[in-house]
Write a structure and sequence with these properties.
This protein is an alpha/beta fold. It has nine helices and ten strands. It has a six-stranded mixed sheet, with helices on both faces. A hairpin with a 1-residue loop joins β9 and β10. It starts with 5 loop residues before the first helix and ends in a 12-residue tail after the last helix.
């Protein structure tokens, strides 16, 4: 006959109660995190966005939120809508459906250019510009001073931006005389001189040599450490997993959105190519 052990049952009941209390505390912590996240001003908010240049959508069903200080890489096959998505984010295109907000404003109405630094896919257009690195970086101050004369504080900010990207020794060199990696650094310095909150880069390492790419990503990590929000379109998946904090895998729709340490490039890209899985849907 089994004897009833009241003491053991009491201990077990107490342990269950402690576990329930611990779970409740964890739930409260998570709720506080969500409340804190919602209270912050999102840098970017896309809600069920669709867009097409013709009747065929280039992107659709895209919902995305990027908060201050995030380092997000957008990846996907050629023609997946990555550059179009950036244009929607920056307000250069208006969604056919859904909403796109930038710094809590409709993206197409946002006009504070000083808050955004944009580095294009190719710096090749700068090859025909007969201006120096310093003159390029000075352009970053124009949203603050217009086309008037830069004051002493503006010039100090320009020199500091040039130094931050390691281009002080090239400040008086013409853009036409620089390598691709050096030109990209000059354009990042321009964004820094503008005191941008958001740095957007569209495949910035295309055509750049390997040593310059490594230095470029070291620079981005340093800038991210200073609190700048970074959105990067990148074709090099190893660079994405090594440097970005969050990956968004796109092929018209979003097939993966999460931490890069959970991002498996082979599986994610297989999904974007359409074979094995449905795109992610928001859960409630």
């Amino acid at each position: 006959m089994t004897r009833f052990n009241g003491e053991a049952l009491s201990r077990e009941t107490a342990a269950d109660g402690e576990e329930e209390e611990w779970k409740e505390e964890e739930w409260k912590k998570e709720e506080k995190k969500e409340d804190s996240r919602d209270a912050r001003e999102a840098i970017i908010e896309l809600d069920d966005v669709a867009f097409g240049y013709t009747a065929t959508p280039v992107v659709e069903n895209v919902s995305l939120r990027i908060d201050p200080g995030e380092y997000v890489a957008i990846v996907g096959p050629n023609g997946s809508g990555k550059s179009t998505l950036l244009k929607l984010v920056l307000g250069l295109l208006r969604p056919d459906r859904g909403t796109a907000r930038l710094f809590s404003q409709p993206a197409h109405q946002f006009d504070d250019g000083s808050r955004i630094g944009y580095v294009a896919q190719h710096a090749s257009a700068s090859k025909s510009m007969p201006i120096t690195v310093r003159e390029v970086v000075k352009m970053g101050r124009f949203p603050h001073v217009g086309f008037g004369r830069l004051g002493a504080s503006d010039r100090e900010i320009v020199e500091e931006a040039i130094g931050t990207v390691g281009m002080s020794s090239f400040a008086d060199r013409r853009i036409t005389a620089l390598s691709g990696g050096q030109r990209q650094r000059a354009f990042i310095a321009r964004a820094l001189a503008g005191e941008a909150d958001l740095l957007v880069l569209d495949e910035p390492t295309v055509g750049v040599d390997a040593d310059s790419v490594a230095a470029f990503y070291d620079l981005l990590e340093a800038l991210h450490g200073q609190g700048i929000t970074i959105i990067l379109i990148e074709h090099d998946l190893s660079a994405v997993t090594a440097h970005a904090e969050r990956a968004v895998c796109l092929n018209r729709e979003i097939y993966f959105d999460g931490p890069t340490d959970e991002f498996t490039p082979e599986n994610a890209l297989a999904r974007t190519m359409g074979a094995t899985a449905e795109p992610e849907r928001e859960t409630t």
